[in-house]
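Much of our argument rests on the idea that a fold can be written as discrete symbols. The amino acid sequence and the backbone structure tokens for this protein are reproduced below:

___
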Amino acid sequence: MSGRQVDRGRLADLVLAAVVGALGTGVAAFDDGTTPLDHALIALASAALAFHRAAPRAVLAVATVLGTAYVVHAHPGPLSALPVLGAVHTAARVGHRGLAAAGSAVFLAGYVSTGPGTQDVAERAGLLAGWFLCAVVTGLADRNWQAYLRQTEQRALEAERTREEAALRRAGEERLRIARELHDSLTHSISIVKLQAGVAVHLARKRGEEVPPALLAIQEASGEAMRELRSALQVLRADEPAGTPALLVERARTAGLPVDLTVTGDERPLPQALDRAAYRVVQEALTNAARHAGPAKVTVRIDYGRGTEGDPAKERSAKGELTIDVEDDGAADPARPPVPGTGLTGMHERVTALGGTLHAAPRAEGGFAVRARLPLGETTA
């Protein structure tokens, strides 16, 4: 919340207290039996409303005690309940329904005790009971409405984020598809042209003949085209993540998320596709933990499996499994598993495309766990 919004809220609270106090003292001024003590009780009960955001329960207690003391001492009309009504409404608005009902009951009991057995007091007490009921109901309705607005805003932000991620992923997949098509078709054709031109130039020079300028131009142009095409393919494939899971963990710690990283096994360079998938799994898991786990601790474990140290022949053909575990002790509940969104779906697609498996679900002891198993296949030492 910005400083300007805080100032506006504070000003609104002061205006509320001032308006309620002015109404209470204005009505009391027309009563000949009002004493300075009564005016003080009205002023203090109204002034307490200025702090209803910071301490709603304390404000309810103060307004109820002072308001009840005022009606017992001065026997005023129904408008004397305004400070207590405001406190009851704000208490119900923040979820203190029981306290709001108790405060209403205390004030009504004090009001009824001022003139027992009279029809006028009974009618006024019934009217006040309806007011207090409305104050509690409107407070709860406002609370539900604010929760709905916050949930709607969160869903809109999440939808915007997932749309951007989906668009970026589709764009990356399309670039990679174009790069594959160019490599498989155009690169092959240009290579053939360059090879044939080179052979023709070589044979002409071998026979002592003059090489046609057009043939030299074809050889040079095809070579230049190959270099340009390689540069274009590098640009199309330049959407790969820059960094390592350890760097992701450091970034998460900097952002305030407590993360522990454990790496076991024979850590070694991975194939590009596998390295990219591992990076994305850790990145998405940490992002979800930061967004949804609440105040939680996260543990990241990466196991490269056992290597074959000292035997280069075995190292070149070693096969194993890369295991990635990301767990948090947050608010996830096994009884309410989350609906898979774009992030979890994207992780699953990346892992399964490489022949691996992914398990992402709430833990039995609480929190959320992501476990990915990726076959290493043949690695190069």
